[in-house]
Amino acid sequence: MTSIIERLDKTVNYIRSLSASKPAIGIVLGSGLGNLIREIEIETEIEYDSIPYFPVSTVEGHHGRLIIGSIQGKPVVVMAGRFHFYEGYTPQDVAYPVRVMKALGVQTLLISNAAGGLNPAFRVGDLMILQDHISLFTINPLLGKNEPELGERFPDMSEPYSLTLIEKGEQIAARLSINVKKGVYAGVTGPTFETRAEYKMLHLLGGDAVGMSTVQEVIVARHAGLQVFAMSVITDIGIREELNTITHEEVLQAAREAEPKLTSIFLELVKQL
Questions:
Q1: Which of 209, 204, 200 has its CA nearest to residue 234?
Q2: Residue 241 CB burial class (10 angstroms; 0-12, 13-18, ≥19)
Q3: Which residues fall within 8 angstroms of residue 235, CB to CB, at 6 or more apart?
Q4: pLDDT for 41 beyond 60
Q5: How high is the pLDDT of residue 72?
Q6: Got the DSSP string for 176-222?
Q7: What architecture is domain 4-15+23-272?
Q8: Domain spans, the chain
Q9: pLDDT digits (tens, 9 = 90+) for 137-186
Q10: What is the pLDDT of residues 54-70, one digit of tens each?
């Protein structure tokens, strides 16, 4: 059986055969949040299905290509499309691209996602900076044999999202006159949207938003020593009195409408890194 180290070597060698860039910043774009790509001075685009050992996106709104280039003169590698546990991938598969980014030279990871609102003060289209997350409902991607080359056996998760980057994100949003919330992201497996009782439970546990991504990527990023900043676009409100039928099309539409604000914050943050 091929080890994770061997797989990473083959993946990274293939990417480096197509690009000599050494990206310091990695970006993961969530559902309906792919227009940041327009701001990239693209050097190389690689379809996921051509990269050795890389999973392939199967969800609408996830393009499925690795983009290498620069933003604001800073070398970046961008995932236009991510992977989810509910697609049938293992947690290790979901987080594999984060390990690849680390091996390419990335030190800072920026993540976006679409999430459902649990906090009754939230509205559709709000932006939330992640302060913390609840990972009890997802399978930890670090289960199994630990490779010391990739990180320590018991990584500390007391600061999954960089306090320094959170402060920078808030300052940027204020300067751009963009209203942002801060809160806790509850990670779930999906692919079903939550029941009314589940929304209420997650909020009682401390969640402000809920989603089907991000948590496993962040765990592996912190295991690898990366600094992480993440933002959610609130695309639906889970706790409400009226009937709350939610469709994926509505989530994508809400994400597209809020995207220009998130993109502005990410661009300014990249400039300051």
A1: 209
A2: exposed
A3: 32, 114, 115, 116, 124, 250, 251, 252, 254, 255, 258
A4: yes
A5: 86
A6: TT--EEEEEEEE---SSPPPHHHHHHHHHTT-SEEESSSHHHHHHHH
A7: 3-Layer(aba) Sandwich (3.40)
A8: 4-15+23-272
A9: 999 999 999 999 999 999 999 999 999 999 999 999 999 999 999 999 99
A10: 987 666 555 689 999 99
